[in-house]
User: Fold this.
Amino acid sequence: MHLAKLKLRDFRNYRKLEAGFEPGFHLLLGRNAQGKTNLLEAVYLISTLRSFRGVGNSQIIHHGRPAFFAGGTALGQAECDVRYYWSTGQRKLTVNEKPIRRLADYLGTLRTVVFCTEDLHIVKGSAKSRRRFLDLLLTQTQPGYLGLLHRYTESLRSRNALLKRDTPDAALLESFTTELIATGGKLMAARRGLVDKLSPLVRLGYRKIAAKPEDAKMNYAPSVREDFAVELAKSRAREQRYRSTIIGPHRDEVKLSLDDKPAAQFGSEGQKRTFCIALKMAQAEYLTGIHGSPPILLIDDVMGELDAERRAGLLPLISRTGQALGQVFMTCTEENWPRELSANLHRWTVDQGTLRRS
Ligand SMILES: Nc1ncnc2c1ncn2[C@@H]1O[C@H](COP(=O)(O)OP(=O)(O)OP(=O)(O)O)[C@@H](O)[C@H]1O
Ligand SMILES: [Mg+2]
Assistant:
């Protein structure tokens, strides 16, 4: 699947853009603040209807204008013409001119994986960032996972509210506990299954990027060791003290290590960056395996933080995804690597909200 056409109106610093893209590796070159990231944001928005910058759509509207439009043509087995119009009062999404009402009916029309500086949270941030990484990928690949996650979160919230009371109703507590155990068990099984599949891909990806590679490992470290029901029952005394549920998937950790040492504490910035890229490449590969075609890679500003050797390791990996019918969009301010490493790429210049082939 690839994005064959992109059309923007009043989208951030783009007043009007119409561009056509073939499959392959597209390099978006430009000085700072010209609109490179905005362009990736637009492709991601068409894919997920949200910004990877974690902001609301109102910020995306070109300053002083009432609405934005982002549209595109996705070419895969079928052709999908997507149009998304957004203003504070009105939003409209159509695919091949048919209105889409449910997000679930739309997601998957154009699949993307984004690589950006904020990804460093996955390695450096709290366990929540890593759980989120797993949960997002499970949501993308397992129908029903999102519903399960909602049910778990809901029973956890109710259970915690009850534990805050001086004398919690025993029968009510029992019923929330049963639901927590049932949904929590399924969440843990899904997360474990995913980490089992991802970790060899992460390890291999890391080895390909780094010249003298460390051994990158990803291990699922659930808060529950063996039996959720038994351990939850054992934790009752501590629960009463903390007035909150202290074990369960909401406390899961995903350990990321380099040569068996925690990457967050002992890794250099470049090593952490490499780890993030390996995680995202693994995500892309996993999605390719499931759907039979690679997602579009949106890569923002990652080359600048890698040394020459790691850049040389990463580029062939990216170009391979761009081959066949895959597609990659990568931004950078300068092409600071040997040309032969990326011979077959399409170069574009981004300049003050305009895009032209260079
Ligand atoms: N809603 C908006 N309306 C108009 N312009 C906007 C809006 N939001 C952001 N911009 C402008 O877009 C430009 C930034 O674009 P972008 O983040 O894509 O830059 P970039 O080319 O990726 O730069 P860098 O290399 O520094 O990352 C800034 O000049 C900013 O003022
Ligand atoms: Mg940028």
User: Anything to note?
Assistant: The two ends are 24 Å apart (CA to CA).
